[in-house]
């Protein structure tokens, strides 16, 4: 078949939890390295790559506020957690010889670059992987919304959301053996049926900007390059 990649520029969103491996918390360096290799193989195909990593493996604003912290403070802590994950991924990618930039929505000049849209676009054109950190820079948002925002700003052709399952199912496939995977689903169906893909603000932003969301499994080796060629199983929200 035709093995040319269908995309020129995409954004990969992974949750912080994808970096934990079998641990209950934090970063598992061999897992970070495994995902970095996946990103490298996508990059090696000549695809311009943006990455957004969550922070849930380290800190989530909602859990902090449930324990009595002020929500905004807890959210800033969550955003800082995403910077730690971004730095870990940058280290793993650079060890593989891939040029990267960590670009933070909250300026911290000694650590990484501040977000300047036109500069980020230039990095992509120069084939550097851009890892967008600190979410949107605002409390009450999630990294799913940040991923949708950055993908739109960078004119990405799609968001690839790597999860533990190979798409969106009508019910939880881990507890329901008869769950059915959708090949294709509309933004409105996701919102109406409350399918667990991304939060509602991220879905609405993607819908308003006609940005397709491809949900696929991070578990399958070489999965992401295959998915970018239209191989394997996944669900497209469009
Ligand atoms: N966060 C935020 N604003 C943003 C993005 C993230 O306040 O624009 C905070 C929020 O507290 C969130 C935490 O950062 O709980 C970690 O992000 P997220 O929960 O999206 O991570 P994931 O679930 O993808 O690992």
TrEMBL record:
UniProt subcellular location: Cytoplasm
Pathway: Pyrimidine metabolism; CTP biosynthesis via de novo pathway; UDP from UMP (UMPK route): step 1/1
Transmembrane segments: none
Binding site for UMP: 55, 75, 136-143
NCBIfam families per the UniProt record, alphabetical: pyrH_bact (TIGR02075)
UniProt keyword annotations, A-Z: ATP-binding, Cytoplasm, Kinase, Nucleotide-binding, Pyrimidine biosynthesis, Transferase
Span of domain Aspartate/glutamate/uridylate kinase: 8-217
A single cellular component GO annotation: cytoplasm
Superkingdom of source: Bacteria
Species, as recorded: Paramylibacter kogurei
Regulation: Inhibited by UTP.
EC number assigned by the record: 2.7.4.22
GO molecular function, one term: ATP binding
UniProt key word Transferase: yes
Stated name of the protein: Uridylate kinase
Assigned protein family: Belongs to the UMP kinase family.
Pfam families: AA_kinase (PF00696)
CDD domains, per database record: AAK_UMPK-PyrH-Ec
């Amino acid at each position: 078949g035709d093995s040319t990649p269908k995309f020129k520029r995409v954004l990969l969103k992974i949750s912080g939890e994808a970096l934990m491996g079998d641990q209950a918390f934090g970063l598992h360096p061999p897992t970070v390295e495994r995902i970095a290799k996946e990103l490298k193989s996508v990059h090696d195909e000549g695809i311009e790559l943006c990455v957004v990593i969550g922070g849930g493996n380290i800190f989530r604003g909602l859990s902090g506020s449930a324990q009595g912290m002020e929500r905004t403070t807890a959210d800033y802590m969550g955003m800082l957690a995403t910077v730690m994950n971004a730095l870990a991924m940058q280290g793993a990618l650079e060890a593989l010889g891939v040029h990267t930039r960590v670009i933070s929505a909250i300026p911290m000049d000694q650590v990484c670059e501040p977000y300047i849209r036109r500069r980020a676009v230039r990095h992509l054109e120069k084939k550097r992987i851009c890892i967008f950190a600190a979410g949107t820079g605002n409390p009450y948002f999630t990294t799913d919304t940040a991923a949708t925002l950055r993908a739109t700003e960078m004119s990405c052709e799609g968001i690839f959301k790597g999860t533990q399952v190979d798409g969106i199912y009508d019910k939880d496939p881990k507890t329901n053996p008869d769950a059915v995977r959708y090949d294709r689903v509309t933004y409105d169906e996701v919102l109406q049926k409350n399918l667990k893909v991304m939060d509602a603000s991220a879905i609405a932003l993607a819908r308003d900007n006609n940005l397709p969301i491809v949900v696929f499994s991070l578990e399958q080796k070489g999965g992401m390059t295959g998915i970018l060629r239209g191989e394997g199983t996944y669900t497209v929200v469009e």
